[in-house]
Amino acid sequence: MNKALLNPEIQDYIDNNIGQNISTLALQKNPFPEMNWSAILQQIEAKTKAKEKLPTWFAQKNIVYPSKISVEQTSSEKTAQYKASLIKGESLIDLTGGFGVDDFYFAKTIHQVAHCEMNTDLSAIVQHNYTQLNVSNIKTYVGDSLGTLQQLNQKWDWIYIDPSRRSDVKGKVFLLKDCLPNVPENLNSYFNYSKNILIKTAPLLDLTAGLAELNFVKTIHIIAVENEVKELLWEIEQNYIKEPRIKTVNLRQNKIDIFEYDWNGETSPVSLSAPLRYLYEPNSAIMKSGGFDAVAQQYQLQKLQKHSHLYTSGELVPFPGRIFEIKDKFEYSKPNMKKYLENQKINITTRNFPETVADIRKKWKIKEGGSNYCFFSTDLNNRKIVLICAKIEHL
């Protein structure tokens, strides 16, 4: 870690340039010739990224940051807080510590936390930052995590792993066996040290593919922040044999939307209906889960069409997603589009529809925005339909 970055004048310069264009700053003369200019610029860029994602780190003085990419790849504080809520016990070892955001929150509920990191410089940065943040119950270790596990040779209540999704050979990868460490290959070894394992993966990982690679999956948590899926959490318990529980979580500003169901659980056929008074669009975490029939059953809704994944009801019900009141509906055709939507300003969503939003806007000269929402979809008779709706903001 470059301790010269902690020079008060350099720290003031970094703070005074948060949000500035790095390319423009790079063309300026380095005001600190004794210090590497690119290192200062890297701090400005990474701290700018941390302002919204890591407000605790941003607000604390004398924090040192790794590269902007490392900050981008780390958990946000919101998702880290959720992960910490899943963990109980006395001890946890994080085999892929990184910038240490998750461990900071684990340490609020776990007495003993171990942070393992192969990158010597990053480990030193994390250790320094924990001191600045007044964290005393996290111990940092440098080196191969499996080697550290064997060297410490103790039982842990939890093992946490966030495998690297980049390979020197394959570039960006999505199967767990291609990540570092190779969790499927090492799983039995991990069980020698803990019966509970929590794995974080990218949201692009297919649930079926993940279940094919992992044993004893107890729960899969699909975590979205403000309706954008950020990560998947695979909760594993040694010798667990029941069906995995799928838990979708959308972390909103003042509310958490949770919907859960059993993977491969029994579901009765979902009824279809023409659009009724209200329209429901599941949040992104539910869409990722694939629980399209389960959500209809739990909320007693009907689907517009088997593959449309839009739901309807005559009576208004609370729902983990966007809710709309249908103001008008018509079959998709040239005369109808010219009559109702051409040259209008409206928000557009497509579900199970052959044209993209961009194509529709261009074709009918529809501008983005306004207070109305328009859904282009397919009904139970396989007709292309258009629904003009008003969004229901609070329920």
Automatic annotation (TrEMBL):
Domain THUMP-like, chain residue ranges per copy: 321-391
Protein name: Class I SAM-dependent methyltransferase
PANTHER family: S-ADENOSYLMETHIONINE-DEPENDENT METHYLTRANSFERASE RELATED (PTHR14741), TRIMETHYLGUANOSINE SYNTHASE (PTHR14741:SF32)
Organism: Flavobacterium erciyesense
Pfam family, one: PG_1098_Fer
Molecular function (Gene Ontology), one example: methyltransferase activity
Alphabetized Gene3D superfamilies for the sequence: Methyltransferase PG1098, N-terminal domain, Vaccinia Virus protein VP39
Alphabetic keyword roster: Methyltransferase, Transferase
